[in-house]
Sequence to fold (129 residues):
Amino acid sequence: MTFAAGLPLAGWKVLIVEDQFLIATDMRRMVIALGGEALGPFRSVEEARELLASQTPDFALLDINLDGKPVFELAEELLGRGVPFAFASGYDDFAIPDAHRGVPRLDKPLSRVDLEQAVLRLRADASPR
Fold:
């Protein structure tokens, strides 16, 4: 897939799962600024699963802790579908289970540069459906 310079998410549908309004709004803006189509933000795993019943995103940004509930079951579902994702978290790597240690973890609050670099690292292994 080709993409416009500086728009590494061009043509990608990006699932955003984040329970903090301001952070979710920033994520959405960054995804759009990088050329992606923002799906969400969704505040819970259950809300995100409703979308997944009808669509498969090309990439996902997942907050690790959604109002006290871990997001790892959703991460497993995305892995099963072959959807690359990154965790967004204020937690250190210790909060990520061993099964997901290779998944990029972006520090919150996210920066556009960090998101862009994570996407560019994943591009070699993934392409939009």
Remarks:
- The first helix runs from residue 21 to 33.
- The mean pLDDT is 89.
